[in-house]
Amino acid sequence: QKAKMVITEKLHNSLEYVAPGLTWERYYLQFQNLGGICEVFVEGAAEAKTSPSCQAFLNGNGDVRILATHEQMLNGQIYVGCKFPANEAYAKDLAMMTMDIGEELSKRYVIG
After folding, report:
1. Could you give phi then psi for residue 63, rounded to 5 degrees?
2. pTM score over 0.85
Protein backbone atom coordinates (compact mmCIF):
# COMPACT_ATOMS: atom_id res chain seq x y z
CA GLN A 1 0.00 0.00 0.00
CA LYS A 2 2.84 2.39 0.85
CA ALA A 3 4.52 1.68 -2.52
CA LYS A 4 1.26 2.53 -4.31
CA MET A 5 1.04 5.84 -2.46
CA VAL A 6 4.66 6.74 -3.24
CA ILE A 7 4.27 5.89 -6.94
CA THR A 8 0.96 7.78 -7.19
CA GLU A 9 2.46 10.88 -5.57
CA LYS A 10 5.56 10.73 -7.77
CA LEU A 11 3.41 10.46 -10.91
CA HIS A 12 1.10 13.24 -9.75
CA ASN A 13 4.02 15.60 -9.20
CA SER A 14 6.22 14.80 -12.19
CA LEU A 15 4.16 13.71 -15.22
CA GLU A 16 4.38 15.88 -18.31
CA TYR A 17 1.21 15.60 -20.40
CA VAL A 18 1.38 15.62 -24.19
CA ALA A 19 -2.38 15.85 -24.76
CA PRO A 20 -3.73 19.41 -24.50
CA GLY A 21 -5.84 20.02 -21.42
CA LEU A 22 -5.02 16.70 -19.76
CA THR A 23 -4.90 16.97 -15.98
CA TRP A 24 -3.79 14.56 -13.28
CA GLU A 25 -7.41 13.91 -12.32
CA ARG A 26 -8.46 12.98 -15.87
CA TYR A 27 -5.29 10.96 -16.47
CA TYR A 28 -5.58 9.02 -13.22
CA LEU A 29 -9.25 8.21 -13.81
CA GLN A 30 -8.45 6.88 -17.29
CA PHE A 31 -5.48 4.93 -15.95
CA GLN A 32 -7.65 3.30 -13.28
CA ASN A 33 -10.29 2.35 -15.86
CA LEU A 34 -8.06 1.29 -18.76
CA GLY A 35 -4.72 0.41 -17.22
CA GLY A 36 -1.56 1.53 -18.89
CA ILE A 37 1.98 0.89 -19.98
CA CYS A 38 4.87 2.63 -18.30
CA GLU A 39 7.87 3.62 -20.36
CA VAL A 40 11.06 5.42 -19.49
CA PHE A 41 12.17 8.28 -21.70
CA VAL A 42 15.92 7.96 -22.11
CA GLU A 43 17.73 11.28 -22.21
CA GLY A 44 20.37 11.73 -24.89
CA ALA A 45 21.00 12.91 -28.41
CA ALA A 46 17.87 12.70 -30.57
CA GLU A 47 19.74 11.03 -33.42
CA ALA A 48 20.87 8.23 -31.08
CA LYS A 49 17.34 7.30 -29.97
CA THR A 50 15.34 4.63 -31.72
CA SER A 51 11.83 3.31 -31.31
CA PRO A 52 11.75 -0.04 -33.10
CA SER A 53 8.54 -1.99 -33.50
CA CYS A 54 7.43 -5.34 -34.88
CA GLN A 55 4.00 -6.53 -35.98
CA ALA A 56 2.86 -10.13 -35.93
CA PHE A 57 -0.35 -12.00 -36.70
CA LEU A 58 -1.59 -14.78 -34.43
CA ASN A 59 -4.08 -17.12 -36.07
CA GLY A 60 -6.39 -19.55 -34.35
CA ASN A 61 -4.18 -22.63 -34.72
CA GLY A 62 -1.22 -21.26 -32.72
CA ASP A 63 0.88 -20.07 -35.67
CA VAL A 64 2.63 -16.73 -35.32
CA ARG A 65 3.52 -14.84 -38.50
CA ILE A 66 5.88 -11.87 -38.41
CA LEU A 67 4.45 -9.18 -40.69
CA ALA A 68 7.01 -6.37 -40.48
CA THR A 69 9.58 -4.55 -38.43
CA HIS A 70 9.96 -0.79 -38.53
CA GLU A 71 11.45 2.26 -36.87
CA GLN A 72 8.91 4.61 -35.36
CA MET A 73 9.75 8.25 -35.94
CA LEU A 74 9.02 10.46 -32.96
CA ASN A 75 8.93 14.18 -32.36
CA GLY A 76 9.72 14.09 -28.66
CA GLN A 77 7.24 11.46 -27.53
CA ILE A 78 4.72 12.01 -30.32
CA TYR A 79 4.54 9.46 -33.15
CA VAL A 80 4.94 11.14 -36.55
CA GLY A 81 5.56 8.21 -38.89
CA CYS A 82 7.74 5.19 -39.51
CA LYS A 83 10.45 3.78 -41.74
CA PHE A 84 10.52 0.16 -42.94
CA PRO A 85 12.28 -2.10 -42.06
CA ALA A 86 13.81 -1.76 -38.59
CA ASN A 87 17.56 -1.28 -38.39
CA GLU A 88 19.24 -4.46 -39.62
CA ALA A 89 21.57 -4.38 -36.60
CA TYR A 90 18.67 -5.59 -34.43
CA ALA A 91 15.71 -6.35 -36.73
CA LYS A 92 16.29 -10.12 -36.49
CA ASP A 93 16.42 -9.99 -32.68
CA LEU A 94 13.30 -7.83 -32.63
CA ALA A 95 11.45 -10.37 -34.79
CA MET A 96 12.62 -13.26 -32.59
CA MET A 97 11.41 -11.51 -29.42
CA THR A 98 8.09 -10.75 -31.10
CA MET A 99 7.79 -14.41 -32.11
CA ASP A 100 8.41 -15.50 -28.49
CA ILE A 101 5.75 -13.08 -27.24
CA GLY A 102 3.33 -14.19 -29.96
CA GLU A 103 3.82 -17.85 -29.08
CA GLU A 104 3.09 -17.12 -25.43
CA LEU A 105 -0.02 -15.12 -26.34
CA SER A 106 -1.19 -17.94 -28.62
CA LYS A 107 -0.99 -20.35 -25.66
CA ARG A 108 -3.43 -17.97 -23.95
CA TYR A 109 -5.81 -18.15 -26.94
CA VAL A 110 -5.08 -14.64 -28.23
CA ILE A 111 -5.92 -14.25 -31.93
CA GLY A 112 -5.20 -11.35 -34.22
Report:
1. -75, 145
2. no
Alpha carbons 5 and 22: distance in angstroms, whole number: 21
Strands (E), 1-112: 52-58, 64-75, 78-83
For residues 110 and 101, is the Cβ–Cβ distance under 8 A?
no
> 73-99, pLDDT tens digit by residue?
888 777 889 999 999 999 999 999 999
Among residues 73, 77, 71, which one has the least CA distance to residue 17? 77
Question: For residue range 2-36, what is the model confidence (pLDDT) as tens digits?
Answer: 888 888 888 888 888 888 888 888 988 888 888 77
Strands 64-75 and 52-58, bridge-based pairing: antiparallel
Residue 15 and residue 38 in contact, taking contact as beta carbons nearer than 8 Å: no
Q: Does the CA dihedral 76-77-82-85 come out positive or negative?
A: positive
- The C-alpha R_g of the chain, in whole angstroms, comes to 18
